[in-house]
Design goal:
20% of the residues lie in helices and 41% in strands. It is α+β, with helices and mostly antiparallel strands. It has one domain. The strands form 3 sheets. A 3-stranded mixed sheet has the order 2-1-8, with helices on one face. The protein has a 3-stranded antiparallel sheet with strand order 3-4-7. It has a two-stranded antiparallel ribbon with strand order 5-6.
């Protein structure tokens, strides 16, 4: 499935999962809605070169400022994704979702 976001287009292959994470310790704290293909390999390495734990490639779909009022926007974003999957849409348009200021670093 293709996702159109404020910052570009991303393709995520099915099966996929959509998650929400919060980053309260970031320079500008934010919530992140992201997609991850379940076909991507997870890496859990521990050896002579140190430790590495990676969950595969993720696509950032929407960012929201870390505010209580953001919960409604996140719910709207998840509803758009759900409707796109249910209708077998080719592109899920999330370009108007989230806070533009939350993308700035």
């Amino acid at each position: 499935m293709w996702f159109k976001t404020r910052v570009g287009m991303y393709s995520v292959t099915a099966p996929l999962e959509i998650r929400v994470a919060s980053y309260p310790k970031a320079k500008k704290p934010y919530y992140l809605v992201f997609a991850r293909s379940l076909n991507d390999a997870e890496v859990d390495y521990k050896g002579v070169f140190g430790k590495l734990n990676a969950s595969g490639r993720v696509a950032h779909l929407a960012r929201f400022e870390l505010l209580e009022s953001s919960e409604a926007g996140i719910a709207q974003c998840m509803t758009l994704v759900e409707n796109a999957i249910a209708s077998d849409a080719r592109i899920c348009d999330l370009s108007a979702v989230g806070h533009p200021a939350a993308w700035a670093e």
